[in-house]
Design a protein that fits this description.
- It is built from nine helices and ten strands.
- With 273 residues, it is of the alpha/beta class.
- Strands 2-1-3-10-4 form a five-stranded mixed β-sheet. A five-stranded mixed β-sheet has the order 7-6-8-5-9.
- Strand 6, helix 5 and strand 7 form a beta-alpha-beta unit.
């Protein structure tokens, strides 16, 4: 998706359509005959929410039925992911799952894990960026890193998602790569990148780690700046944002993925049509 990732928008939507839409003559008994719900485990306005709504709009046109995105937030993504896994396996409730589902069970937050779902389509992959308030004194990621090292543990505050989410782990990885403890910067759990960026703009946070596309609206409003991305190369859509390796010599990369999925026992005549 051009706005959300370096992947092609058309490829992403084509994958979703191919994976979820019964072709003419398929044996799904006329599915769908009523509206479809797409559960999003993260807050409105974030990258996952935006991905879900873009695809839902396209699916509505193809399916000739309403496709409604419902945000089920909370528990570092547990609430929404659980709702997808336990939905009635009739094809009328699916959802967008994220990389966190591969980690939440290790933290003891849920019994659900990747094999609790039937994957339908991988939509996109995003590396995290490091964002600061537009009025922050740190103009480069090196200046920010020096300030983090000089600050007492816990003085600076960051967010981007819930506790233990991918953007939290991205910060932890960066801190560790700098030789700091994982909690040197205090993490403030929030329901996604959108509320985190709003808090950053309001001055409640010092740092937000999330994808640059998720931060784009606040950046373009002149309320935040992106200092670097944790990727092997720059994002062509944000070519002025350097990689960590370019800016600091730290070869640390990570990223998030998002995909559509249904409950594990979704009937094959719907899932494979």
């Amino acid at each position: 998706m051009a706005v959300l990732t370096r992947r092609s928008f058309s490829i992403g939507l084509g994958a979703a359509a191919a994976a979820t839409l019964p072709a003419s003559g398929a044996s799904a008994q006329g599915w769908p005959t009523r509206p479809i719900t797409v559960i999003c485990p993260w807050g409105a306005g974030g990258g996952t929410d935006a991905t879900a709504r873009i695809v839902a709009a396209v699916l509505e046109k193809e399916l000739k039925q309403p496709v409604n995105v419902v945000n089920r937030t909370g528990g570092s993504g547990v609430v929404g992911h659980a709702a997808i896994a336990t939905a009635q396996p009739d094809g009328y409730t699916i959802g967008i799952i994220t990389v966190e589902i591969s980690m939440l069970h290790w933290q003891g937050l849920t019994e659900f894990k990747p094999d609790s779902y039937l994957p339908l389509a991988l939509m996109n992959e995003d590396p995290p960026g490091i964002q600061v308030n537009a009025s922050s004194p740190y103009k480069t990621v090196k200046e920010l890193a020096d300030a983090i090292k000089a600050a007492p543990p816990g003085k600076l505050k960051a967010s981007g998602t819930g506790q233990g989410g991918i953007w939290h782990l991205a910060l932890v990885g960066w801190l560790t790569a700098m030789g700091l403890k994982p909690d040197h910067v205090a993490w403030v759990p929030l329901n996604g990148a959108a509320p985190a960026m709003q808090d950053l703009a309001a001055g409640g946070l010092d740092i937000v780690t999330c994808s640059v596309p998720e931060a784009r609206a606040i950046i373009e409003a002149g309320k935040a700046r992106s200092l670097a991305i944790m990727a092997p190369e720059r994002n062509p859509a944000f070519k002025d944002v350097p990689t960590l390796k370019e800016a600091m010599g730290i070869d640390y990369t990570t990223g998030a993925w998002r995909g559509f999925a249904g409950p594990k026992n979704l009937p094959p005549d719907i899932a494979e049509a």
